[in-house]
Amino acid sequence: MKKICAVSGQEFEITEKDLEFYKKMSVPPPTLCPEERERRRWAWRGKDFFLRECDACGKKKMAWFSPELTEIKTYCEDCFRSEAFDATKYGRDFDFSRPFFEQFRELYYAVPHHISNAIKNENCEYIISAHQNKNCYMADEVDDSWDCYFGYTFQRVKNITEGLYIHDSEIGYQLVKAENCYAVFYSKNVFHCSESAFLLNCRSCKKCLFCANLRNKEYHIFNQKVSKEEFQKYWDFLFSGSQKNRETCREKFSEFLQTQYFPAATIIHCEDSTGDYITHSKNAQYCFCVDYLRDCKYCTDIHRSQDCMDVNIYEGELCYECNHIGPEGYKNRFSQLTWFSSDIDYSIDLYNCQNCFGSTSLKKEKYCILNKKYSREEYEQLTSKIIEHMKQTGEWGEFFPIEMSPQPYNHTMAQRFYPLIKKEVLSRGWKWLDEKEEIKESAEHHIPENLSEIGNDFTSKVFLCEETGKKFRFIPQEIKFYQKWGIPLPTVAPVQRIENLWNQLGERKLYNRKCAISGEEIETTYPPEFEGKVVSQEEYLKIVE
Ligand SMILES: [Zn+2]
User: Fold this and answer.
1) In a domain, 86, yes or no
2) Residue 60 alpha carbon to ligand 1 centre in Å
3) Separation of 496 CA from ligand 1 center, angstroms?
4) 164 CA → ligand 1 middle, Å
5) Distance 61 CA to ligand 1 centre (A)
6) Predicted TM-score of the model (pTM)
7) 303 within a domain of the structure (yes/no)
8) What is the total count of domains within the chain?
C-alpha cells in the first residue's frame, strides 16, 4: 500500500511483508517515510565530543552533551554505576489526563543520564559510546580496541588513526571500511589486505599500491605486477613524511580510478539483500554497514540481528524504531540505548532491564513504568491501558519527537545524514547550538610540509584547520604514529578528518542506474551525477574473478 509521509509529503510504500512485521510487533504502520523516521531517531543521537562536568562528583568528563545544555543532568560512569544512584526514586504515576510524551519528557529531564555511554575503558579520553578499550582518543562506537584515534566504529582493532567502520584490523591510516587488514593506509573497502596503500575494493592483496578491484595479488602498482625493488621505491616515496609526495600519489591514484569499474554495492556472502556494505546476511533490505542479519529492513550499523526494522546501531532481535539496542536487545520498540534489555518500550538508557515502559536510566530493573516499579500483573494491565491511551493521543507507533531531544540538531547524527541549516532547524522548532572556539591561544598557521620539521614543543602549538579555519592541536600519540610510519602531518582539524571519512563513505540512499557494461537496471549509492563506470554485481564478479 502507498502512504503519504506526514512530514515530507512524499509517497512511500508499505509492502505486505512490512505489514506482517508490524502485526508481529503489535504496532501500527508508520505515518512517516523511512527517511523521516531515521532522521527522527538520529536527532536523538549525539555525534560530537564535549568536556562536561558530572552533575554528581563535579569531575570533568568526556560527554556527548555540550556543557551548555543545562536542561539535562549527566553522571560520569562511576557515579552512574554507583549503588547510590537509583533512578526508580524518580518513579511517578501515569496520568491519563495528559499525553505520554509530555510525562516522559518531564521524567527524562529530571533523571541524570550517562554522560557518554562509554563503559569500562582505560586511558581513553574523548571517546563516546565505547566498551572495553585502551588508549583511544576521539572515537565513537568503539569496542575492544587499543590505540585508535579519530573515527567511528572500531571493533577489535589496534593502532588505527583515522578510520570508519574498521573491524579486526591492526595498523592503518585513513581507512574507510576495512576488515582483517594489517598495515593498510589511505584505502577504502578492503578485506584481508596487508602492507599496502591506496587500495580501493581490493581483497587479499599484499604489498600493493594504487590498485583497484584486485583479488589475491602481491607486488602490484596501478594493477600491474612490479618487482620488489620497484614497489619499495614507490613505498619509500609515499611514506617519506612529505605532504607533497603524498598528494602527488593521491592525484595519480585518483586519475587511475577514472579508468576503473565501480561495483554498484558491496554485498558479500549475502542472499536477497539491498543497500551497501552488507556482509553475511539474508534478506537485509535497504540496510547499510551491517553484518550477519536475517530479515531486517531500513537498518544501519547493526550486527548479528534478526527480524528488525528501523534500527540504527548494534544488535537485536524483534526490534522496531530504535537507536542503539543491545548487545542482546530483544523485543525493543521506540527506544534508545538499551543495553542487554528485553521487552522494552519508549525507554532511554536502560542497562540489563526487562519489561520496562517509558523509563530512563534504570539498571537491572523489571516491570517499571515511568521509572515506578509494579508487579507483573499490574505492569501488564497498566501498559495495555497506556497503549490504548496513546492510540487516542496519536502517540502510539511514533518514536520520541525531535523537539524533545536534548541534543541540538546540528550536533547529532541527523545533521550528518540529513543536514539542515540553522534557519531550517529553528523554523521546525528544533534546537541549534552554535559551535564555540574552545582554544583561546592564537594559532601558528603553518603546518610543516615535512614530518622532519617538527620541533620539540610541537603538541603545545595551535594550528588552523585548512578546511574549516578552526583551531586545533596535535596529540602526542598521533605524532608518534606519523613518525613511525612516515605519514605527513594532516592539515585539517580532527573533527573535520572524521567528517572527511564520512564523505568518502558515500550516501546511504539507493539510486537507479544502468550497469555500465550490460545496461541492466541496478540500484546503487552512487548518485546520478557520479561519472564513474558503475556495474552490476554480476558484471563486477566477471571483472575481478
Ligand atoms: Zn561523577
Assistant:
1) no
2) 8
3) 30
4) 30
5) 8
6) 0.96
7) yes
8) 2
The region of weakest confidence among 64-78, 118-132, 194-208, 484-498 is: 118-132
Name the residues around ion ligand 1, CB cutoff 5 A: 54, 56-57, 76, 79
Cα–ligand 1 centroid distance for 342 (angstroms): 28
Gap between the Cα atoms of 94 and 386, Å rounded: 8
The C-alpha cell of 84 is what?
547510590
Residue 196 CA, chain-centre distance (Å), reads: 26
The contacts of residue 345 (CB under 8 Å, 6+ apart) are 332, 333, 334, 335, 356, 357, 358, 383
Same domain, 232 and 259: yes
Predicted local distance difference test score (pLDDT) of residue 154? 97
CA of 121 to the centre of ligand 1 (A): 15
Tell which of 350, 380, 410 closes a domain: 380
Give domain status of residue 237, yes or no.
Answer: yes
Q: Which three cell numbers stand for residue 421?
A: 541549516
In a domain, 174, yes or no: yes
Alpha carbon of 427 to ligand 1 centroid (Å): 36
pLDDT digits (tens, 9 = 90+) for 342-385: 999 999 999 999 999 999 999 999 999 999 999 999 999 999 99
The last residue of a domain, from among 327, 351, 380: 380
pLDDT digits (tens, 9 = 90+) for 272-285: 999 999 999 999 99
CA–CA gap between residue 322 and residue 535 (Å, rounded): 34
Which structural domain range is residue 199 located in? Answer: 169-263
- Beta carbons within 8 Å of 224's beta carbon, 6+ residues apart: none
Q: What is the pLDDT of residues 26-62, one digit of tens each?
A: 999 999 999 999 999 999 999 999 999 999 999 999 9
pLDDT value at position 477? 96
Same domain, 280 and 367: yes
